[in-house]
Design a protein that fits this description.
241 residues; two-stranded parallel ribbon; 41% helix; 9 strands; 8 helices; Spore Coat Polysaccharide Biosynthesis Protein SpsA, Chain A; globular; alpha/beta
Length: 241
């Protein structure tokens, strides 16, 4: 796969929204405070049944404020991965940022991510919770250990020096997300968005970012999803280029 965008032109931010309120408002505020010139579009991905009314109202209010900057997209596919895949289709800018609206992805990191993307427009810029001892806050020791071992195991299998392959906080050249055939629908899709480009020869740059547990709403990542991480990790590894 030849992915070679000549330059970083503009960015679309994808924000799935289910029950986030103050976290969503703070995320958008920080994104625009430091990156308004680079962000052309923020897409709120909503679920027709699961997205809470108050969260929906916040998104609609942003649309009223500035239609050209914000967009609402109702997902057709199921789960988080399905929401992201639907949003990928809608991206029209040179680059795309995948993150969350619950502050588990720190919006203050985005400025640094964009800076690196401008210098390396053909590469994926991904945040890592393991670089520079940023790690996790209130994640639980067992889950931290399991995450560490998972990262080490699959980075070795794929022959890369990535320390955090499952963190869904990254900037892509849009050509990458348009050309790859995605398959996962649950949270394992976040892992898929890194390993499939790596398999195709796309280079990755990691930058440090801290993680803390969401302060409102409930996580939609269930335990059984972790088996799907292993499934897609091994399946992609064995795929022919």
């Amino acid at each position: 796969m030849k992915i070679n965008p000549k330059f970083f032109k503009d960015l679309t931010v994808i924000l799935p929204v289910i029950d986030e309120r103050q976290s969503l408002i703070h995320t958008v505020k920080v994104l625009l405070k430091y990156n308004s010139l680079d962000i052309k579009k923020i897409i709120f991905v909503l679920h027709k049944k699961k997205t809470k009314q108050e969260s929906r109202a916040i998104c609609k209010n942003y649309i009223k404020t500035k239609k050209t900057k914000f967009e609402i997209l109702y997902q057709k596919r199921k789960f988080l991965g399905g929401a992201m895949r639907d949003a990928f289709i809608a991206v029209k800018t040179s680059h795309c940022l995948m993150m969350s609206s619950d502050l588990e992805t720190d919006p203050r990191t985005v400025k640094k991510m964009i800076k690196h993307s401008k210098k390396n427009p053909e590469k994926i810029i991904t945040a890592s919770r393991w670089l520079n001892n940023k790690r996790f806050k209130n994640y639980g020791m067992a889950k931290v250990l399991a995450n560490y071992l998972f990262q080490k195991f699959f980075s070795y299998l794929y022959g890369v020096k990535c320390s955090d392959m499952t963190f869904g906080f990254r900037v892509f050249p849009t050509k990458v997300i348009k050309k790859i055939k995605w398959e996962m629908l649950n949270h394992s899709f976040l892992f898929e968005t890194l390993i499939k480009p790596i398999k195709e020869g796309v280079e990755v740059i990691e930058i440090d970012s801290k993680w803390k547990r969401r302060i409102e709403g409930d996580t939609n990542n269930v335990f059984t999803n972790y088996f799907w991480y292993i499934y897609i990790g091994l399946k992609v590894l064995l795929m022919k280029k």
